[in-house]
Amino acid sequence: MNPIDVDVAIIGAGTAGLTARRQAEANGATVALIDPGPYGTTCARVGCMPSKLLIAAAEAAHRARHAALFGVDTTVSIDGRRVMQRVQAERDRFAGFVQRAIEELRTRGVLIPGRARFLDDHRLEVDRVDGAPPLVVRAGSVVIATGSRPFVPPPYRGLSRDVLLTTDEIFELPDLPDSLLVVGAGVIGMELGQAMARLGVRTTILSLGGRIAFIDSEPVNAEAIRIFRQELDLHPHHELHEVEEVDGGVSVRFTDFDGRTRTERYARVLMGAGRVPNWEGLGLENTRLTLDDRGRPEVNPYTHQVEDSHIFVAGDVAGHRPLLHEAADEGRLAGLNAARYPHVLAEPRKTPLSIMFTDPQVAVVGDRWPDLSCADHRVGVVDYGDQGRARVMGENRGMVRIAGAAGTGQLIAAQMIGPRVEHTAHLLAWAIQGRMLVSEALDRPFYHPVIEEGIRTALRDLQSKLHLSYKPEHPCEEWGAGT
Amino acid sequence: MNPIDVDVAIIGAGTAGLTARRQAEANGATVALIDPGPYGTTCARVGCMPSKLLIAAAEAAHRARHAALFGVDTTVSIDGRRVMQRVQAERDRFAGFVQRAIEELRTRGVLIPGRARFLDDHRLEVDRVDGAPPLVVRAGSVVIATGSRPFVPPPYRGLSRDVLLTTDEIFELPDLPDSLLVVGAGVIGMELGQAMARLGVRTTILSLGGRIAFIDSEPVNAEAIRIFRQELDLHPHHELHEVEEVDGGVSVRFTDFDGRTRTERYARVLMGAGRVPNWEGLGLENTRLTLDDRGRPEVNPYTHQVEDSHIFVAGDVAGHRPLLHEAADEGRLAGLNAARYPHVLAEPRKTPLSIMFTDPQVAVVGDRWPDLSCADHRVGVVDYGDQGRARVMGENRGMVRIAGAAGTGQLIAAQMIGPRVEHTAHLLAWAIQGRMLVSEALDRPFYHPVIEEGIRTALRDLQSKLHLSYKPEHPCEEWGAGT
């Protein structure tokens, strides 16, 4: 019983590890799934789900506050404890589904609660969380799926746990904080910063480099900064002078995006400055893998294999596409390849899709914008400021830019900020993955009046910039008023 | 100057007539566009746009009222005059775009304000609205695009204009009515009935036949009735005993959906019982066309031509697909064919798509459900009652059914009620038009957590019912918690 022999050892029972487990077993492998807990996946416990729950509350407050536009008068008061209670109760429910699956795996003896460390290429020592003596697991192949953790930039590392929050802590608060400094304008910083501000928390968002999240089209980034700064104390770039923990919070001195030097106090500081992969403590130095100067191996992004070895890496720790749906795909393929090693397959990756659930939402689809310089292309544009349905709903702001290849009009990429972008981004991601031409997209149905008609406007613009059609004199006569 | 000679005469300056005009001129034809007004299209003046504006106000009120779920406490009061003012102001703005295009056409002499009537196959007499003597227009070919008007069922025809409202009048009201009887549970009746109810108007919706709008899948219809009846005094079937105009409104005695006989008073009655095509007064009996017993010719739904004649029919009057985006397509092709007659083309129709903008929304995509009996198929289902993102937003209700062909899994049709269906219906309509297989759809990206993941659940269900894949034991382990 000690050592335990299995075909596949999987380190980490998050999204990637769980799909790897299923796929490895489905391919006939015996599996040990090693994780010290807490269980329930980053997404369900501290990521996608609780953040969307907080956003749902913020959106309810925001919409109620702005109903007067429609002739609906309201008063709004926010009960921070109830806001957090719903976030926690629903979050626990979502994480509970995963935890029940984990419990079954523990009962079956597949899950070993503990921390794994390579002793050599095929042997892992498991430091068990229940205090039992360490186990040794001998595995034909190994999947590393250890995930990631919040990054804390150096100036904030001295802050105590009374003040410093990461996504591991913020959803545990019993009530909304009095005030909040958000460090970083990435997805986490922007989503939670805007949600907190809309829930009445005095919030400042400080970032470096002048970019909002993953946007890399200059005009879309500029539009995002313009829109979000109308509502938020947002500084996409700033100079930090001093961070000091004070009674009941933190005092921060910084020069803001407008060049003003300010000293502000906040009750709490939330880290939204990205996540770092969990490579530490794995004992990779005891294997034959070649490691870079940070102690990390190089992972093939198509097969998830390290070199030609029996070791595979999937999910956030690999750092290729740290998103739930990609982690699930990577885990599945890593599990398959681990079970069938040395017979290893690649799999076509899905069209890249990233969404930020702010209001307005932001998305990028397909190739990164700088990569477009390699292809002869044009960009079709729509300004949602004057789009019919968006105006009807009072959400008429934003911009969508769609790139298509010269000569054919094949759709390549899109960068988007605007209403309901999570949906139109799916439409475009599906079209791009299907290698759809702009002419084919324009032959598809667009109902009226819908947000999708704004996408059509951008496609028409793209088509005429590619000289694949003429521009009509009166779009409203051609396509209906308010498209 | 009298008669006027043109290549193409177009009767009706609505959506179909305007696109026909543009296409005919683009193909070198001289055009007379004949319409007595009011100008601005059915859609912009009395259809899609003002209804969506009223719905936007209703949704603002509804969401504000139900924010407590999220920990946001509100009071809500509705200012009916301001509600209607926004509807009218924005509606006028949308219709104004069309009216300006019309004005240019009038200046250019293309638009002749008046009513047209065939004198013979090629000559139209125009009864001018400005009191000038009638004109005769001699045309090589003719496009009939006279649109439709609200249908008033016989029991309500005796009501005075003080009580009876159609979509021609309801958006002109200076204030919300005190109470409203809606006749018909089609798109107009359901959209406006629910909007009025949510704006605090005591509203009853009475219909015949037990169906909600265009739904023809039994389980989806049953789910729609169940959901809407939780909120609305909705009777998909009823027996009408008496309608009587009384002081300040109407008194109606009916046996409702639950078999109770009730007598109710309402300040106003809104017709939502469909629209009838405007065939009257065209003098078609003076042409060589064969007319049915209602005096209507048979129109080819692909070329829009009547028999092999020089007369074409487009838009609502044709009755094939009375929707803005279809009317625009039909007008374009009818205009092209009228200009190039006798050289006449068909054009592939778009995948059928109908959307009802209630909450939850309803849509049907692709083939009608009864037509599916001609194809060996299976139906994949998702219940939105337990869908992750829908639950996060507190909109977790509804059902989507997707049909796919046996053997290949090619997607055929969908019937849907649920959150954000207007967007997922576009995704499925595009997929169906592209002849996508269920396996291809499942290879496309689905972000997390999104409403689209519910569609994936239905696709997975379809795939396993078609025996094109196995069903996983733990969906949450495979695809993430709360998908």
The proportion of strand residues of chain A reads 25-35%
CATH homology superfamily name of the largest domain in chain A: FAD/NAD(P)-binding domain
Please count the helical segments of chain A.
Answer: 13
In total, the number of domains of chain A comes to 3
Q: Please give the alpha-carbon distance between the first and last residues of chain A.
A: 69 Å
Enumerate the spans of chain A where pLDDT stays under 50 for 5 or more consecutive residues.
none
List the helices and strands and how they pair.
2 copies of one chain form a homodimer.
Chain A: E1 4-11, H1 15-26, E2 31-34, H2 42-46, H3 48-65, E3 72-78, H4 80-107, E4 111-112, E5 114-118, E6 123-128, E7 135-144, E8 148-150, E9 164-165, H5 167-170, E10 179-183, H6 187-198, E11 202-206, H7 218-231, E12 233-235, E13 239-246, E14 249-255, E15 261-266, E16 268-271, E17 275-277, E18 311-313, H8 324-340, E19 353-356, E20 361-366, E21 377-383, H9 388-392, E22 399-405, E23 411-418, H10 421-433, H11 438-443, H12 452-465, H13 475-479
Parallel strand pairs in A: 1-2, 1-7, 2-4, 7-18, 9-16, 10-11, 10-16, 11-12
Antiparallel strand pairs in A: 5-6, 6-7, 8-17, 13-14, 14-15, 19-20, 20-23, 21-22, 22-23
Helix pairs in contact in A: 1-8, 3-4, 3-6
Can you offer a commentary on this structure?
Two copies of one chain form a homodimer. By secondary structure, the first copy, chain A, is an alpha/beta fold. Chain A folds into three domains: 212 residues, 3-Layer(bba) Sandwich (FAD/NAD(P)-binding domain); 120 residues, FAD/NAD(P)-binding domain (3-Layer(bba) Sandwich), CATH 3.50.50.60; 114 residues, FAD/NAD-linked reductase, C-terminal dimerisation domain (Enolase-like, domain 1, 2-Layer Sandwich), CATH 3.30.390.30. Chain A has 13 helices and 23 strands. In chain A, a hairpin with a 6-residue loop joins β6 and β7. In chain A, α3 packs antiparallel against α4 and α3 packs parallel to α6. The relative contact order of chain A is 0.12. The mean pLDDT of chain A is 96. The interface between A and B is large, with 94 and 94 residues. β3 of chain A pairs antiparallel with β3 of chain B.
